[in-house]
Amino acid sequence: MLLVSWLTGAVRGETINVGTLVLEIPARFKAEVLHKKAGPEGELDFNEWRTEDGRILQVLYYFKYTSWDGGGPMKIAKEDAMDVAGQKTKLIETEWFLGHPKKVHVVYLDRGKATYSIVGDRMSRDEFVRVLE
Protein backbone atom coordinates (compact mmCIF):
# COMPACT_ATOMS: atom_id res chain seq x y z
CA MET A 1 0.00 0.00 0.00
CA LEU A 2 1.08 3.57 -0.68
CA LEU A 3 0.30 6.28 1.83
CA VAL A 4 -0.82 9.74 0.80
CA SER A 5 -1.22 11.97 3.83
CA TRP A 6 -4.03 14.46 3.47
CA LEU A 7 -3.35 16.07 6.84
CA THR A 8 -2.96 19.81 6.51
CA GLY A 9 -2.85 20.88 10.12
CA ALA A 10 -6.43 19.78 10.73
CA VAL A 11 -7.72 16.91 12.80
CA ARG A 12 -7.78 13.65 10.86
CA GLY A 13 -11.32 12.71 9.90
CA GLU A 14 -11.15 9.32 8.19
CA THR A 15 -8.80 6.88 6.53
CA ILE A 16 -9.93 5.30 3.27
CA ASN A 17 -8.43 2.97 0.67
CA VAL A 18 -8.68 3.84 -3.01
CA GLY A 19 -6.98 1.10 -4.97
CA THR A 20 -3.50 0.78 -3.50
CA LEU A 21 -3.53 4.28 -1.96
CA VAL A 22 -4.38 4.81 1.69
CA LEU A 23 -5.80 8.29 2.11
CA GLU A 24 -6.01 10.26 5.34
CA ILE A 25 -8.75 12.84 4.88
CA PRO A 26 -8.81 15.97 7.11
CA ALA A 27 -11.91 16.31 9.27
CA ARG A 28 -13.06 19.48 7.47
CA PHE A 29 -13.54 17.48 4.24
CA LYS A 30 -16.76 15.47 4.20
CA ALA A 31 -17.34 12.52 1.89
CA GLU A 32 -19.75 13.27 -0.95
CA VAL A 33 -19.12 10.22 -3.16
CA LEU A 34 -17.12 7.11 -2.25
CA HIS A 35 -16.22 4.28 -4.60
CA LYS A 36 -18.74 5.14 -7.31
CA LYS A 37 -18.07 2.87 -10.28
CA ALA A 38 -18.26 4.31 -13.79
CA GLY A 39 -17.17 3.49 -17.32
CA PRO A 40 -18.32 0.76 -19.71
CA GLU A 41 -16.70 -1.95 -17.59
CA GLY A 42 -16.79 -0.18 -14.22
CA GLU A 43 -13.13 0.69 -14.63
CA LEU A 44 -13.35 4.03 -12.79
CA ASP A 45 -13.58 4.33 -9.00
CA PHE A 46 -14.69 7.93 -8.31
CA ASN A 47 -14.26 9.56 -4.87
CA GLU A 48 -15.00 13.12 -3.76
CA TRP A 49 -14.80 15.12 -0.53
CA ARG A 50 -15.99 18.72 0.05
CA THR A 51 -15.63 21.40 2.67
CA GLU A 52 -18.46 23.67 3.79
CA ASP A 53 -16.81 26.57 1.95
CA GLY A 54 -16.76 24.71 -1.38
CA ARG A 55 -13.24 23.29 -1.68
CA ILE A 56 -13.19 19.90 -3.40
CA LEU A 57 -10.78 16.95 -3.35
CA GLN A 58 -11.27 14.20 -5.90
CA VAL A 59 -9.46 10.92 -6.33
CA LEU A 60 -10.21 9.05 -9.54
CA TYR A 61 -8.79 5.54 -9.81
CA TYR A 62 -8.68 4.06 -13.32
CA PHE A 63 -7.63 0.48 -12.64
CA LYS A 64 -7.39 -0.64 -16.28
CA TYR A 65 -5.54 2.29 -17.82
CA THR A 66 -1.88 3.13 -17.99
CA SER A 67 -0.59 6.57 -18.86
CA TRP A 68 -4.08 8.05 -18.99
CA ASP A 69 -4.13 11.39 -20.80
CA GLY A 70 -6.59 13.18 -18.52
CA GLY A 71 -9.75 12.38 -20.46
CA GLY A 72 -10.48 15.74 -22.01
CA PRO A 73 -9.07 19.02 -23.26
CA MET A 74 -6.84 20.63 -20.66
CA LYS A 75 -4.90 23.87 -20.96
CA ILE A 76 -1.94 23.93 -18.61
CA ALA A 77 -1.10 27.26 -16.98
CA LYS A 78 1.82 25.95 -14.93
CA GLU A 79 3.48 22.66 -14.07
CA ASP A 80 6.20 21.71 -11.62
CA ALA A 81 7.94 18.44 -10.79
CA MET A 82 7.07 16.91 -7.42
CA ASP A 83 6.99 13.60 -5.57
CA VAL A 84 3.65 12.14 -4.47
CA ALA A 85 3.31 8.78 -2.73
CA GLY A 86 6.91 7.94 -3.62
CA GLN A 87 6.47 8.66 -7.34
CA LYS A 88 7.91 11.46 -9.44
CA THR A 89 5.06 13.32 -11.14
CA LYS A 90 3.98 16.84 -12.09
CA LEU A 91 1.80 19.27 -10.21
CA ILE A 92 -0.36 20.85 -12.90
CA GLU A 93 -2.36 24.06 -12.60
CA THR A 94 -4.94 24.41 -15.35
CA GLU A 95 -6.77 27.19 -17.16
CA TRP A 96 -9.06 24.61 -18.81
CA PHE A 97 -9.90 21.21 -17.31
CA LEU A 98 -11.96 18.42 -18.89
CA GLY A 99 -13.00 20.73 -21.71
CA HIS A 100 -14.17 23.66 -19.57
CA PRO A 101 -12.53 26.89 -18.43
CA LYS A 102 -11.60 25.88 -14.91
CA LYS A 103 -8.62 26.42 -12.63
CA VAL A 104 -7.74 23.26 -10.73
CA HIS A 105 -4.59 21.64 -9.41
CA VAL A 106 -4.06 18.05 -10.48
CA VAL A 107 -1.50 15.27 -10.28
CA TYR A 108 -1.49 11.95 -12.11
CA LEU A 109 0.06 8.79 -10.70
CA ASP A 110 0.73 5.64 -12.73
CA ARG A 111 0.73 2.43 -10.68
CA GLY A 112 1.19 -0.68 -12.80
CA LYS A 113 -1.89 -0.97 -15.02
CA ALA A 114 -3.72 1.75 -13.11
CA THR A 115 -3.77 5.53 -13.14
CA TYR A 116 -4.82 7.90 -10.37
CA SER A 117 -5.96 11.47 -10.87
CA ILE A 118 -5.94 13.64 -7.72
CA VAL A 119 -7.71 16.96 -8.21
CA GLY A 120 -7.99 20.04 -6.01
CA ASP A 121 -10.78 22.37 -7.05
CA ARG A 122 -11.18 25.84 -5.49
CA MET A 123 -7.98 25.27 -3.52
CA SER A 124 -4.89 27.45 -3.55
CA ARG A 125 -1.71 25.91 -4.90
CA ASP A 126 -0.10 25.97 -1.45
CA GLU A 127 -3.09 24.25 0.16
CA PHE A 128 -3.16 21.54 -2.51
CA VAL A 129 0.59 20.91 -2.12
CA ARG A 130 0.19 20.60 1.67
CA VAL A 131 -2.60 18.10 1.10
CA LEU A 132 -0.31 15.90 -1.03
CA GLU A 133 2.63 15.92 1.40
Q: Count of DSSP helices?
A: 1
Uncertain runs with pLDDT below 50, 5 residues or more? 6-10
- Strand % is over 45%
Q: What's the pLDDT, averaged over the residues?
A: 82
Shape, principal axes of CA atoms: globular
Helix content: under 10%
Largest sheet, strands/sense/barrel: 8 strands, antiparallel
Structural category is mainly beta
Number of strands: 11
Cα-to-Cα separation, first versus last residue: 16 Å
Summarize the structure.
The protein has 133 residues and is mainly beta.
Give an overview of the whole structure:
- A hairpin with a 2-residue loop joins β8 (87-97) and β9 (100-101).
- The longest helix has 8 residues, at 125-132.
- The two termini are 16 Å apart.
- Strands 4, 5, 6, 7, 8, 9, 10 and 11 form an 8-stranded antiparallel β-sheet that branches.
- Mean pLDDT is 82; it is low at 6-10.
- The chain has 1 helix and 11 strands.
- It is globular, with a radius of gyration of 14 Å.
- 25% of the residues are buried.
- Helices cover 6% and strands 59% of the residues.
- It has one helix at 125-132; strands spanning 2-5, 12-18, 21-26, 30-38, 44-50, 56-62, 75-84, 87-97, 100-101, 104-111, 114-121.
- With 133 residues, the protein is mainly beta.
Annotation keywords:
133 residues, mainly beta, 1 helix, globular
